[in-house]
């Protein structure tokens, strides 16, 4: 083949090709930029309006205040985030207690135990669960879960309560955990399972000792997504938890450590950060007023909570990562 | 394609060198035996009525063209075929005198006695130590795990290369080192038989030759059954060779020297000399 005298044409190709390549690159970069710019724009808007708010109400007052009444008929306004933060964290934490274990075990079942047939039926079914409008979940919590809890475990419970709402938010986010975790587990190369089985591992040992550690970063991102979704969930909470920014009673335990009786939060009505924002927009809202600006302060706080959650789960995932 | 005379003589000399080996001479007990074994994948027959006895503490090579059933046969021994839904096994495979397809046999317990090394090095994404200790851990080994890890890595001729990095990931090793790590992992629980499914086919020649040397050493303590595509490799390292041809038929099974120097079957000779397959 080397006896050919004609040397190959290696010159750079002409303008049109290069222009086309450049255009494609630019187009793709522009799409990527849209998300980035939107995030940045949201952050800037939040920040600028929140700054206006913090001129009237100090950050300390906002972060430590235990009374939230942005628009009272009479008397003074108060903008303390604590009751809302308690509401949001209660719902998020309780929902995670439901969605993370059930979702993870479902994912293990689907990826490792289910026959291909069972998987092909169950996975779409689970994803339908994610497609139900959240307002339907909310009414379901109000009309079925609360009465059921009242009739069995907690007769004293309020009609609007955090527990039923949290359970429902948890159920709603199960498919997020199970679906994304299952994808991560299925992506683990089969050679690793074979190696485990070849050593005499049981299915359970292979699933928990090999597959789960190898897919932990995917599993962790499913948790992040589910938790973020729970933090931001509004409709279920509005319907089932009521909209009362209630401050639970702070009691003093041994050694003077303050604590809140979980029943006082879970079995009573409450309000989350998102619901507080909805309530403000629901009233006669005038731009530039203090309640209006408080919305952006709340948005910023929500943003911060989500960010902290993401960072924590990222650190945890990093710690247990076993990349294949 | 002129690989008849020269290649043949090469193989012959090496086979002779091997048959001088001290473990080739005395008769050994049987480690694994197949009796009237038939395996089907759906309607397709992968193993056709195979009966053979595999001696203990010897290297037995299974050779043959692609799709001849040699890997299927290997995976019958530790019942790895159980995981393939459409796979059906008829007949007996005996290990230590017991039929592994008998009614009370737990494949998990069986696999703890039979180690396996795969075609592609497949260390777990864990540290070198945890890789080797994995089998010990799941089997509830109550001795000194670190000592056993060291012993196994030495047994796999890997200790000197990794003794200072036992906590780093097994995936940071080279392909040949990874495969020796997999061998260390397989021998750590002290099995009786080691199955190897083309253990060097994904490795470069230098790494492959290290594995071959290692296999020779392993046969001092273990029964090694190895599937290989590489006939020179079978000739170099094995004591007994079984030739499978298309359709899962065991055509000839004899001492390696006999198979490579003077096979009974014309089809085996054709295969070995490259006229077929």
TrEMBL record, chain A:
Pfam families in alphabetical order: BPD_transp_1
GO CC, one annotated term: plasma membrane
Keywords attached to this entry: Cell membrane, Membrane, Phosphate transport, Transmembrane, Transmembrane helix, Transport
Keyword flag Cytoplasm: no
Example of a GO biological process term: phosphate ion transport
UniProt KW Membrane keyword: yes
Family: Belongs to the binding-protein-dependent transport system permease family. CysTW subfamily.
Described function: Part of the binding-protein-dependent transport system for phosphate; probably responsible for the translocation of the substrate across the membrane.
Gene Ontology MF: a single term: phosphate transmembrane transporter activity
Protein's membrane topology: Multi-pass membrane protein
InterPro entries: MetI-like (IPR000515), MetI-like_sf (IPR035906), Phosphate_PstC (IPR011864)
Stored NCBIfam families: phosphate_pstC (TIGR02138)
Predominant cellular place of this UniProt entry's protein: membrane
Ranges where the ABC transmembrane type-1 domain occurs: 85-313
Compartments where found: Cell membrane; Membrane
Transmembrane intervals: 22-44, 81-108, 128-147, 159-180, 295-317
The organism of origin for this protein: Halorubrum trapanicum
Protein name (database record): Phosphate transport system permease protein
Automatic annotation (TrEMBL), chain B:
Region Disordered: start-end pairs: 1-27
SUPFAM superfamilies to which the protein is assigned, alphabetical: P-loop containing nucleoside triphosphate hydrolases
Entries under Pfam families matching the protein: ABC_tran
Biased composition (Polar residues): 1-18
Domain ABC transporter, residue spans: 32-272
One GO MF term: ATP binding
Keywords recorded for this protein, A-Z: ATP-binding, Cell membrane, Membrane, Nucleotide-binding, Transport
Cited InterPro entries: AAA+_ATPase, ABC_transporter-like_ATP-bd, ABC_transporter-like_CS, P-loop_NTPase, PstB-like
Taxonomy, superkingdom: Archaea
PROSITE patterns: ABC_TRANSPORTER_1, ABC_TRANSPORTER_2
CDD domains in UniProt: ABC_PstB_phosphate_transporter
GO biological process, one term: phosphate ion transmembrane transport
Protein name per UniProt: Phosphate transport system ATP-binding protein
Species whose genome carries this gene: Halorubrum trapanicum
Gene Ontology CC, one term: membrane
SMART domains in UniProt: AAA
Source species taxonomy: Archaea, Methanobacteriati, Methanobacteriota, Stenosarchaea group, Halobacteria
């Amino acid at each position: 083949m080397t006896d050919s005298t004609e040397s190959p044409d290696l010159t750079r190709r002409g303008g049109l090709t290069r222009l086309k390549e450049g255009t494609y690159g630019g187009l793709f970069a522009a799409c990527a930029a849209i998300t980035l710019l939107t995030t940045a724009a949201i952050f800037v808007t939040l920040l600028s309006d929140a700054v206006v708010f913090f001129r009237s109400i100090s950050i300390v007052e906002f972060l430590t205040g235990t009374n939230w009444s942005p628009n009272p008929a009479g008397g003074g306004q108060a903008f303390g985030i604590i009751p809302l933060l308690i509401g949001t964290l209660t719902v998020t934490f309780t929902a995670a207690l439901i969605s993370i274990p059930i979702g993870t075990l479902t994912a293990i079942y689907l990826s490792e135990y289910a026959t291909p047939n069972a998987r092909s039926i169950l996975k779409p079914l689970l994803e339908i669960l994610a497609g139900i409008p959240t307002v339907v979940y909310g009414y379901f919590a109000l009309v079925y879960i609360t009465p059921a809890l009242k009739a069995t475990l907690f007769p004293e419970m309020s009609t609007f309560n955090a527990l039923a709402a949290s359970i429902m938010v948890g159920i709603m986010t199960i498919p997020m955990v199970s679906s994304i975790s299952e994808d991560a587990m299925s992506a683990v190369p089969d050679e690793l399972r074979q190696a485990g089985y070849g050593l005499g591992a049981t299915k359970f040992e292979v699933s928990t000792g090999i597959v789960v550690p190898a897919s932990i970063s995917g599993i962790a991102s499913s948790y992040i997504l589910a938790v973020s979704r729970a933090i931001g969930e509004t409709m279920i909470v509005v319907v089932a938890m009521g909209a009362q920014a209630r401050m639970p009673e702070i009691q003093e335990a041994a050694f003077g450590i303050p604590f809140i009786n979980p029943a006082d939060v879970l079995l009573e009505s409450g309000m989350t950060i998102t619901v507080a924002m909805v309530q403000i927009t629901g009233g006669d809202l005038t731009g530039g007023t203090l309640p209006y600006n408080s919305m952006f302060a709340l948005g910023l706080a929500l943003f911060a909570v989500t960010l902290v959650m993401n960072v924590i789960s990222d650190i945890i995932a990093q710690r247990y990562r076993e990349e294949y | 394609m002129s690989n008849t005379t020269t290649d043949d003589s090469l193989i012959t000399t090496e086979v002779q060198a091997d048959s001088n080996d001290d473990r080739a001479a005395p008769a050994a007990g049987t480690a694994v035996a197949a009796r009237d074994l038939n395996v089907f994948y759906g309607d397709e027959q992968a193993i056709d009525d195979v009966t053979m006895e595999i001696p203990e503490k010897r290297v037995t090579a299974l050779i043959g063209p692609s799709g001849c059933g040699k890997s299927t046969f290997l995976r019958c021994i530790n019942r790895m075929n159980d995981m393939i839904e459409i796979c059906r096994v008829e007949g007996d495979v005996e290990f230590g005198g017991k039929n592994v397809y008998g009614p009370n046999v737990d494949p998990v317990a069986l696999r703890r006695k039979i180690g396996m090394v795969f075609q592609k090095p497949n260390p777990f994404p864990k540290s070198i130590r945890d890789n080797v200790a994995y089998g010990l851990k799941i089997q509830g080994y109550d001795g000194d795990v670190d000592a056993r890890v060291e012993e196994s890595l030495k047994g796999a001729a890997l200790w000197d290369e990794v003794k200072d990095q036992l906590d780093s990931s097994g995936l940071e090793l080279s392909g040949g080192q990874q495969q020796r790590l997999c061998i260390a992992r397989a021998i750590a629980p002290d099995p009786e038989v080691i199955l190897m499914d083309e253990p060097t086919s994904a490795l470069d020649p230098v790494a492959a030759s290290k594995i071959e040397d290692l296999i020779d050493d392993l046969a001092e303590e273990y029964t090694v059954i190895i599937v290989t595509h590489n006939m020179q490799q079978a000739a170099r390292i094995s004591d007994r060779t079984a030739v499978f041809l298309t359709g899962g038929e065991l055509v000839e099974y004899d001492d390696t020297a006999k198979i490579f120097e003077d096979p009974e079957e014309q089809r085996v000779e054709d295969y070995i000399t490259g006229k077929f397959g």
